[in-house]
Each structure stands twice: as C-alpha cells, then as structure tokens.
Amino acid sequence: MSEIREVVIIGSGPAGYTAALYSARAQLKPLLFGSSIFVGGSLTTTTEVENFPGFPDGVDGPVLMENMRAQAEKFGAEMIDDDIVEVDLTGDIKLLTDSAGTVHRAKTVIIATGSGYRKLGLPKEDELSGRGVSWCATCDGFFFRDRDIIVVGGGDTAMEEATCLTRFARSVTVVHRRSTLRASKVMQDRAFSDNKISFAFDSEIAEIKETNGMLAGVVLRDVLTCATRDLDVTGLFIAIGHDPRTELFKGQLALDTDGYVTVASPTTRTSLPGVFAAGDVVDHTYRQAITAAGTGAAAALDAERYLAARG
Ligand code: FAD
User: Fold this and answer.
1) What does the alpha-carbon distance between residue 311 and residue 235 come to, in Å, rounded to a whole number?
2) ipTM above 0.90, yes or no
C-alpha cells in the first residue's frame, strides 16, 4: 500500500504549482500530478506574458512555468508528469489512480486541472498560437495595437473580447456562423454601437494563412453560399467557449451547469470535505494566470487548515 500523503495536487498550471509551493513551505510534502503530455498548463502554449507581476520586461510563458515548478520543488514538492485517470474522493482517505494503475492515497486533494479553450480545429491554429492567433483579449490585446483583427464567436465572451480589442485594434470583424448573435442584448448593443466593430454573419474561417511563422490573414467562407473571400488580418481571436477539465469528477463533486467545480466562495472548498479546487477549473470569469495562482495559494491554505482541524 502507498503511504498516505497529506496533499495530492492534480494539475501543473499556475494554480497547481502555486498550491504545491505553499503546501511544500507548510511542510506538507505535496505530490503533484502534472499530466503526461501537457506539463506546465496553458501558459506553455504562448510566448510572451506581460501581465504576470514581477516581470517588468515580460516573461516567456514556458519559462514562467518552469520557474514556478522549480520554486515549488526547491521546498520539497514532488512532481510526477503523469495523468490521474480515476479518483474516489468520497471517503476520508482519497484514492487517485495514475495511468500505470498505481493507486495513491491522500488526506486532501487540490484539483487544479484548468479548462481548455475550444478550438476551430483548423490547420496552423495551434502552431500560430501567440503568433497572431489568441484566445484571450485581456492577455494579448496589447500586442495588437493598430492591427486589423477578427473575433470568432457570437456569445457574450466574443462580444466582450471584440469590445475590449477596440481599445487597441484599428478594426475588429466579428465572424459568426449564424445570422443572429447568442450574446445578451446589452452586450450586442454595445458591440453594434462601436464604430470599430463590423460583423460577418453566416460566415466561418475556412483557412488560416501564415507567412514567416506569423498569421498572415484568413479565408472566410459564407456558410449559405460556400463563397470564399480573403480577409487581410494579422490577429485572430477565437471566442467560442471553454471546457473545464472535470470529466474525472462527475458524479462525485458538485459541478455547475457548465461543468465547472463549485466552491464555497471565497474559500476553495468543494462539496466534499478535504477536496479543494483552484484556477480555471472553477473560474468562469477571470481566467488569468495570476488569479489561478492566487486561488492555488488559497487552496493550499484551506487544505492546511483542514488538516490541522482534522488532527
Ligand atoms: P492550466 O494552466 O490549464 O493547467 C492545468 C494543468 O492540469 C494542465 O497542464 C493539464 O494538462 C493538467 N491536468 C488536467 N487534468 C489532469 C489530470 N487528470 N491529471 C494530471 N494533470 C491534469 N493568462 C495570463 O494571465 N496572461 C497571459 O498572457 C495569458 N496568455 C494565455 C495564452 C494562451 C494561448 C492561453 C491558452 C492562455 C493564456 N492565459 C494567460 C490564461 C492562463 O494560461 C490560464 O488562466 C491559466 O494557465 C490557468 O491556470 P490553471 O492552473 O487553472 O490551469
């Protein structure tokens, strides 16, 4: 039988690594499972990060994540680059199975599995992430000053991204597959009244074009006529939704209607004692590295207090 750990963390993004740092410094010897193929989380898919405090000249996303990991390891956090494929979180001792079938036991579990941006599924989309293709106006809008940009999507997030981007961009074209938007009326009105924003309805991106490793335009297709046309843009923001990585926890933890883990805000306590959740797997609203790191710290402190009270 494996030893019973004080804290096991699932997820290697800013939330997981910060939870590891805090619980390691609290002498809880955390064990973190950080995925077999996606170690370091979402920021490893981008280039420059300019809004994480402490880096006046910006920092490369993968470098920031390696530093977070090294800082947690320095205080004794143990990292395993593997997936947790099954959990039983309902008992006093939590059971977590890795991909080799080994069952790990823990008194507390911190869930920091993040959420994935939905993708268009087009060639070059991933390769040009951080090179003209983005999923986050708050993160990347600043890099697109005086550029012509496309926002794909028709919901509130797409309208919010489009409106936010008008602060930087020369023009923003919202591309939506249908003839009407899904966004709330107030968000639609705001976008319609902005003279930098125009709309391409009944349209989708047929092709992403690249020159010298950077986005160099897109081909738009009219979904009704199948006619195509080139659009000369250097920014493509994809705002078609997110999927929290909570498949593992269904049926055990309370999730909201969109599948995010529900916590007793402002704490990180979930519906099960001894189980805490942090970062984008909880957060519909902010979805930033700094907010994920902040709730990761809170989860470690919540776990520490739970362990102290448990005795
Ligand atoms: P994530 O970073 O998503 O990490 C979760 C990790 O958990 C992943 O590695 C995942 O594989 C792993 N995992 C999931 N399930 C399991 C499992 N069963 N077993 C083991 N591991 C598992 N934010 C900013 O503040 N500034 C920016 O400039 C910025 N730029 C961005 C650019 C891009 C392209 C993207 C995609 C996001 C960007 N963000 C930015 C947002 C930021 O990356 C996220 O808000 C943040 O990473 C969320 O952290 P997290 O720890 O909650 O989850």
Assistant:
1) 54
2) yes
